[in-house]
TrEMBL record:
<dbReference type="Pfam" id="PF01315">
    <property type="entry name" value="Ald_Xan_dh_C"/>
</dbReference>
<dbReference type="InterPro" id="IPR000674">
    <property type="entry name" value="Ald_Oxase/Xan_DH_a/b"/>
</dbReference>
<dbReference type="InterPro" id="IPR046867">
    <property type="entry name" value="AldOxase/xan_DH_MoCoBD2"/>
</dbReference>
<feature type="region of interest" description="Disordered">
    <location>
        <begin position="1"/>
        <end position="28"/>
    </location>
</feature>
<protein>
    <submittedName>
        <fullName>Xanthine dehydrogenase family protein molybdopterin-binding subunit</fullName>
    </submittedName>
</protein>
<dbReference type="InterPro" id="IPR008274">
    <property type="entry name" value="AldOxase/xan_DH_MoCoBD1"/>
</dbReference>
<dbReference type="Pfam" id="PF02738">
    <property type="entry name" value="MoCoBD_1"/>
</dbReference>
<dbReference type="InterPro" id="IPR037165">
    <property type="entry name" value="AldOxase/xan_DH_Mopterin-bd_sf"/>
</dbReference>
<dbReference type="InterPro" id="IPR036856">
    <property type="entry name" value="Ald_Oxase/Xan_DH_a/b_sf"/>
</dbReference>
<dbReference type="InterPro" id="IPR016208">
    <property type="entry name" value="Ald_Oxase/xanthine_DH-like"/>
</dbReference>
<feature type="domain" description="Aldehyde oxidase/xanthine dehydrogenase a/b hammerhead">
    <location>
        <begin position="35"/>
        <end position="142"/>
    </location>
</feature>
<dbReference type="Pfam" id="PF20256">
    <property type="entry name" value="MoCoBD_2"/>
</dbReference>
Length: 777
């Protein structure tokens, strides 16, 4: 199979095109964000507004014996102090129809930072003092923090009344006894992934304004407005037609805004006081105000032949979901279905568990269950290579899936998937120049002068990630778009209206590109995202270009059909007409007339829904089913320099090969690959929420470290375009796959360096700590 390949090297800049699909028009919000002029949700302001604040639990597990809000109410400038008794409607909400999370604590708290009471005041400092004045008497209880103990005895370790286990999903394929009989070598290892935070820079914030009809107008940063309102309405006892939501400026999301944060709380305060209420978390509160990536404890056992062929895999994955369900049901399903990655293994026994604990709540984060599994299955591929004496790239190639293969759930890979070729391309990329120890900035530790090259060893490692795109397991994952074409100021103008959240991924740019391509007009306006049009689903699962892009394309096609029908009647033209550059032309290029003259004062508007091909749930016993819409691959090769005496790491290169089906916008695409790789690098060597006995110890960007520009190396990117026949334009979602493969590639390179230094390598946990490297060297 021949792949279309486009290669970019560090330092190259793509020239902006005219603005259609495949070109790279600049983002309309890009310059504003760079200059600090973009209006984020935290910048919202309205005259007469109050400031809302949330009192949170200092304990991971405790009963509330007494709650006295009287002292807070006596403070001048305080307009309201609310508890769970003041919730107007249903007191519980939750993602995925679980409804297990209290709006405000009811008699007990189940995690550190759980909301207990709300305050509305004239000034944020008054609100803070009012929270401190609230009196609470506690009965502190022993928290349940060990997810393995929950799996072993879920009834004894119950955080929720429904039990200790959120979801158990097995996968069974083939015959394990047959597999064991075929194995020449059996390898078993335990792996662990720590808690990673989405670490978006814009904290949770928003403004809620009471309306004359008794309803509320919400201006919030979120990922899925319609599902927010589905949860908010019953809690505030408001019907759908009394709630209007407009997307405010979003400062990053990565899954952390799928769950509600301040929406219901600000709505309660606005209804109670009759005044606009603004809520804005500080950085510490933000760590408690959103879910994180599930930490995982995993056991992998593989049987292989001496030729490196995997004949069986036995896997156990335990995901700690924290106190409430959030997205744990689906994260567990994802982890189970992708537990052994993009490899053909005939005999499988996989058990994936999502459990409740009193640790921080966990839910959606970029990679969604596949990140944890990818670290383990890629580490196992390296162990296989070492055990049978083969090259780690070759071991991956001989076990790789391709078009027509089945993944663990029995789902057939229906689109081109040239994984073996991609691995070869990653291996053959030029390597960075040898380490120059004369410049200390090149060394691990940099200008801190912790080393001058003593004990520094270079290592190379690979990682492959396979990620599902769009929602899975039978979810009707549709999106809606409304497109309007009219003449304004003597020019044809298209207006695109969706409820899709622009969270920094560049969706508004792609929407405009699609409209330009389909309607042949240059001027395209993107209507602010709100709930006055049908749902566009969540800005997650790398789905918006696929789903909302598909909806915009369908609505544009409907508009174009009406325009061309109008042209046939007006100009007496034959079939085969097109819209090009604001003109109606024939297939031979003959111009029939200008679109401006054709439309006149007429407005053509169409609304369409786009649905992907149906998926099914996973069988509860065998795990089999066509559970995923689309699968996407990314391959990383990492090059690292490691000071094996001090445990310091410098990532020198993190090159990637990714198949995206169709390049919609090169600049945005490269940004997605760079960003995903950065988050994977962070998980590999620095990012972890530290939790002890259920308490978060480092809720700040001083102590929770994320990669900066000094930590990110140059990246060579090779981007393939093997079209998916089921997707609009043949595209594949691109935002998540690089997050998977970058982490194991970096860790594999660290292991390789330690091995080169003569160490006995045992690095099975991320993020890798300095003591892990020293112990392995």
């Amino acid at each position: 199979m021949t792949s279309v390949r486009t290669t970019r090297f560090p330092g190259e800049v793509a020239a902006p095109g005219k603005g259609g699909v495949g070109e790279s028009p600049l983002r309309p919000d890009g310059t504003l964000k760079v200059k600090g002029e973009f209006a984020y949700s935290s910048d919202l302001w309205i005259d007469g507004m109050l400031w809302g604040a949330t009192l949170r639990s200092p304990h991971p597990r405790a009963r509330i014996l007494r709650l006295d809000i009287g002292p807070a109410l006596k403070l001048p400038g305080v307009h309201a102090v609310l508890t769970h008794e003041d919730v107007p409607g249903r007191k519980m909400y939750g993602l995925d129809h679980t409804w297990d999370q209290p709006v405000l604590a009811i008699g007990e708290v189940r995690h550190h930072g759980e909301p207990i009471a709300l305050v509305a005041a004239d000034h944020p400092e008054i609100a803070r003092r009012a929270m401190e004045a609230i009196v609470i008497e506690w009965e502190v209880l022993e928290p349940i923090t060990d997810p393995l103990a929950v799996v072993a005895d879920p009834e004894r370790h119950k955080v929720q009344e429904r039990g200790g286990i959120t979801r158990y999903q097995p996968v069974r394929v083939g015959d394990m006894e047959v597999g064991r009989a075929l194995a020449d070598v059996v390898i078993a290892e335990d792996y662990e992934v720590g808690i990673q935070d989405q670490a978006f820079l814009g904290p949770e914030s928003g403004l809620v304004v009471p309306a004359e009809d008794g309803g509320l107008d919400f201006y919030v940063a979120t990922q899925w407005m319609h599902w927010d309102l589905t949860q908010i309405g019953p809690c505030l006892d408001l019907p759908e037609d009394k709630m209007r939501m407009t997307l405010a400026g979003v400062g990053g999301a990565f899954g952390g805004r799928e769950d509600l944060s301040m929406q219901i709380h600000a709505g309660m305060l606005a209804l109670y006081t009759g005044k606009p209420v603004k809520m804005m978390y500080n950085r510490e509160e933000s760590f408690f105000g959103h879910v994180h990536r599930h930490p995982a404890q995993m056991r992998y056992e593989y049987g292989v032949t001496r030729a490196g062929k995997i004949v069986f895999a036995k896997v156990r994955i335990v995901l700690d979901g924290g106190a409430y369900t959030s997205a744990t049901l689906n994260v567990t399903g994802n982890a189970a279905s992708l537990a052994v990655g993009p490899y053909e293994i005939p005999n499988l026994e996989i058990d994936a568990y999502g459990v409740y604990t009193n640790n921080p709540p966990c839910g959606a984060m970029r990679g969604f269950g596949a990140v944890q599994a990818c670290f383990a299955h890629e580490s196992m591929m390296d162990k296989i290579a070492e055990a049978v004496g083969l090259d780690p790239v070759h071991v991956r190639q001989i076990n790789a899936v391709s078009q027509g293969s089945k993944i663990a759930t029995g789902q057939v890979v229906h689109a081109p998937m040239p994984m073996a070729e991609m691995l070869g391309q990653a291996r053959d990329m030029p390597l960075p120049a040898p380490l120059d120890v004369a410049d200390i900035r090149n060394l691990p530790g940099g200008a801190s002068q912790t080393t001058h090259g003593e004990g520094v060893v270079r290592g190379i490692g690979y990682g492959v990630g396979i990620k599902n795109i769009c929602f899975s397991e039978g979810f009707d994952d549709y999106s809606t778009a409304r497109v309007r074409l009219e003449v304004i100021g003597g020019e044809p103008v298209a207006l695109v209206h969706t409820a899709a959240a622009e969270v920094g991924q560049g969706l508004v740019t792609v929407e405009a590109q699609i409209a330009r391509t389909e309607l042949g007009v240059e001027r395209v306006t993107i209507h602010p995202a709100d709930n006055q049009v049908g749902s566009s689903g969540s800005s997650s699962a790398s789905r918006q270009t696929y789903m909302t892009g598909g909806a915009v394309k369908a609505a544009c096609e409907a508009v174009r059909m009406r325009v061309l029908a109008l042209a046939q009647g007006r100009f007496g033209a034959a079939r085969g007409l097109r819209l090009v550059g604001g003109k109606v032309v024939s297939h031979t290029g003959e111009v029939y007339g200008a679109l401006v003259d054709l439309l006149g004062d007429e407005i053509i508007e169409e609304t369409r829904e786009f649905h992907h091909k149906p998926t099914t749930g996973m069988d509860p016993v065998t795990g089999q089913g066509d559970s995923h819409t689309q699968l996407a691959l990314c391959v990383h090769r990492a090059v690292v320099d490691v000071d094996t005496e001090l445990g310091l790491v410098k990532v020198v290169a993190l090159d990637a090969v990714q198949d995206v089906g169709k390049i919609m916008n090169r600049l945005s695409l490269e940004g997605q690959i760079h960003g995903g790789s950065a988050q994977g690098l962070g998980l590999a060597v620095m990012e972890e929420i530290q939790v002890r006995d259920g308490k978060v110890l480092n809720p700040s960007f001083t102590d929770y470290l994320i990669p900066t520009i000094l930590d990110m190396p140059p990246q060579r990117l090779e981007i393939l375009e093997n079209a998916d026949p089921h997707a609009p334009y043949g595209l594949r979602g691109a935002g998540e796959p690089p997050t998977l493969s970058s982490t194991p590639a970096v860790v594999a390179a660290i292991r390789d360096a330690c091995r080169s230094a003569g160490g006995t390598v045992h690095i099975n946990r991320v993020p890798v700590r300095p003591e892990d490297i020293i112990r392995s060297s």
